[in-house]
Amino acid sequence: MKERSAERRTHKRYAVEGICGNVHCLSDLKVINISVDGAAIETTNRLEVNGEYRFRIDYKGAPLHVAGFVTWSKLTRSEKRRSGELVPIYKAGVKFIGIMDKKADILLSFIEENKVRTPERRSGVRYKLNSSENIKVGYPYGYDVKKISLSGMEIETEHPLTPDSIHDMEFWLHDGTVNTTGKIVTCVEIPMENLTKYTMGVEFVGISDEDKKLLKRFLSTIEES
Q1: Is it the case that residue 224 has pLDDT exceeding 80?
Q2: Which of 72, 164, 203, 225 could form a disulfide with 152 if both were Cys (CB 3.0 to 4.6 A apart)?
Q3: Domains observed in the chain
Q4: What is the C-alpha to C-alpha distance for residues 216 and 151, in angstroms, rounded to an integer?
């Protein structure tokens, strides 16, 4: 396993300290109504009021990432699943943030093509959708970066992820935030006395040129030190 991992690794990895980030584990949601400004949604996991979440909309073969913060959240009911499990249903209001012109146009096109034709009015026009299957909400789980390169990183976290699974991720450098799509290559439990942690190898499978430049600039400062 180690030999194959080394063969795949095309860039030198550097040990780092003080770099942390979030992995966004996607979960299904139901859209009650939506506009370019925000949405009302239902989920089986509670969203924290004033918490910021990332929403992924699959549209025409490409993911659209939209950030939003929760303005209100409440438990509305419980539903019984086929397994007999009783699952809580939470309703929340989300205000989208950072919607620039191009992203707004894509979101408007998605709504126009998927909306039920009768609008709901909520301080503007919001629409019901025919289906919510193309929209996911990412729940952020924190991690610490232990090693990093241009092609991947080794992280430590309390939340294990399945090898070969793909997640939206972000981590914070001294002069900016790097957003990437990461593939979990390995996940190994770290023996500890009072807390279970995991070391995971992550391969970057989607990163913009701008974020790659930011990461490359950061790595160059390590080489110089």
Answers
A1: no
A2: 203
A3: 2-23+139-224 (2.40.10.220), 30-131 (2.40.10)
A4: 10
Tokens representing 96 are: 């989208």
The residues, ordered by sequence, that sit 6+ positions from 43 with a Cβ below 8 Å of its Cβ are: 27, 28, 29, 30, 89, 90, 92, 137
CA atoms within 13 A on the CB side of 106: 15
3-state secondary structure of 221: helix
Over residues 36-84, the pLDDT tens digits come to 999 999 999 999 999 999 999 999 888 898 999 999 999 999 998 888 8
Q: Name every residue whose Cβ is closer than 8 Å to that of residue 17 and which is 6 or more positions away in sequence.
A: none
The single-letter DSSP state of residue 191 is: P
Which pair of tokens denotes residue 21? 């980030």
Q: How far is CA 101 from CA 29, 98, 207, in A?
A: 25, 10, 21
Please tell me what DSSP assigns to residue 218. Answer: H
Q: How many CB atoms lie within 10 A of CB 43?
A: 19
- Asked whether the CA dihedral 162, 53, 153, 59 is positive or negative, the reply is positive
Most distant CA atoms of the chain, gap in Å: 61
pTM, two decimals, is 0.75
Q: Is 31 helix (H, G, I), strand (E, B) or coil?
A: strand
Average pLDDT value for residue range 5-33: 84
Tokens of 223: 């080489």
pLDDT of residue 6: 44
The CA-CA-CA angle for residues 213, 218, 221, to 5°, reads 130
